[in-house]
Amino acid sequence: MTSPEERAAAILAAQRFVVIGTADAVGPWTAAAQYRLLPGGLYVESDLASRHARAIAASGAASGVVYDSSAGLADADGVQLSFRARQADADPAAVREVLAARLARDAVTAAALDDEVAAIVAIPRKRLYVLEVELAYVFDRDAWRSRGTDARLEVDAAAVWRLIDRI
């Protein structure tokens, strides 16, 4: 039987998109973004003017969900996350620091890293947003299957990231 932490790690390692939730003076907002894994979290790229980017800059908080979009109804599964969020500085050293911290599965050569840094810095409004996981949950599939109830199980986020490193 797969543990909740193993399920979370498998989903985060297999998927590439997170739906980010933020709130601002207008109200709640969600946006899908491609992510890459960092130790203990992930990062996304976004425009400074995007609503979620402005909300992150103002509050330092976000939430997210990464779900297995290939699963059938009875096997629905996903990871719900609470983040401490921040915008990385736009200078090349800060961008390089974030990109170089990616997990091994997303690592690139030094030359490719230089090219990525240059491409990001070349777009004045583009920023990296680091989303550090504070809390993580997986869907409670037993509750869903037996009672039709949407529920979740908290998982040990540090254990999830240790498992991701092995995938």
Write the layout of secondary structure elements.
Blueprint: H1 4-14, E1 17-24, E2 27-38, E3 41-47, H2 51-59, E4 61-67, E5 78-87, H3 92-100, H4 110-121, E6 126-139, H5 141-147, E7 152-155, H6 157-166
Antiparallel strand pairs: 1-2, 1-4, 2-3, 3-6, 4-5, 5-6, 6-7
CATH class: Mainly Beta
Number of strands: 7
Taking strands numbered 1, 2, ... along the chain, how are they ordered across the largest sheet? 1-2-3-6-5-4
Q: What structural category characterises the helix and strand content?
A: alpha+beta
CATH topology type = Pnp Oxidase, Chain A
User: What is the CATH architecture term?
Assistant: Roll
Radius of gyration: 17 Å
Compute the average pLDDT. 93
Q: Detail the poorly predicted runs.
A: none
From the spread of the alpha carbons, the general shape counts as globular
Count of runs of 4 or more consecutive helical residues: 6
- Indicate the percent of residues in helices: 25-40%
Number of domains: 1
What about the largest sheet?
Answer: 6 strands, antiparallel, barrel
Determine the N-to-C terminus distance: 17 Å
Give the name of the CATH superfamily: Electron Transport, Fmn-binding Protein, Chain A
| Topology pattern, helix = H, strand = E | HEEEHEEHHEHEH
Share in β-strands: 35-45%
